[in-house]
Write a structure and sequence with these properties.
VOC_core; Glyas_Fos-R_dOase_dom; VOC domain-containing protein; 8 strands; Glyas_Bleomycin-R_OHBP_Dase; four-stranded mixed sheet; alpha/beta; 2,3-Dihydroxybiphenyl 1,2-Dioxygenase, domain 1
Length: 134
């Protein structure tokens, strides 16, 4: 058993490999995220951002591949989407539509009736905002 009986895991913070930390932080700050921490403070190689309880870590490619050499041949962006649940999807869309090129505009899905929109960040990560409760 991965987690001992009676204990549980309660958080998942993705640590995303990025090419340009300053560009990434500016992008996420423009979406409304706050920078909670960055190391070192000047010319950071790692940062933690947060928006309404959603936390994402970013690490520069040189720093991350020094820690995990297996990632040296990997491209930023990954084969994944970051699905973000929020009852305020329209509020985030208004801000994002000014700042970003959208992959999918705000709309209601045929398959589950959720209001959603999708964008791509500077490193190719796909952020999928949805009001669908899971």
């Amino acid at each position: 058993m991965l987690v001992p009986e009676g204990q549980y895991m309660n958080r998942l913070f993705p640590n995303l490999m990025v090419q340009d930390m300053e560009q990434t932080l500016t992008f996420y700050q423009n979406l409304g995220f706050s920078v909670l921490s960055k190391m070192p403070e000047e010319s950071p190689v790692w940062a933690l951002v947060e928006l309404d309880g959603i936390k994402i870590m970013f690490q520069s490619k040189p720093s991350l591949t020094a820690e995990f050499p297996q990632l040296a041949d990997q491209q930023s962006g990954g084969a994944l989407t970051l699905w973000i649940n929020t009852p305020n999807v329209k509020k985030y869309f208004e801000r994002a539509s000014i700042q970003c090129k959208l992959l999918k505009p705000l709309g209601v899905t045929d398959y589950n009736g959720a209001t959603e929109f999708v964008l791509r960040d500077p490193d190719g990560f796909i952020l999928h905002f949805s009001d669908l409760e899971m």
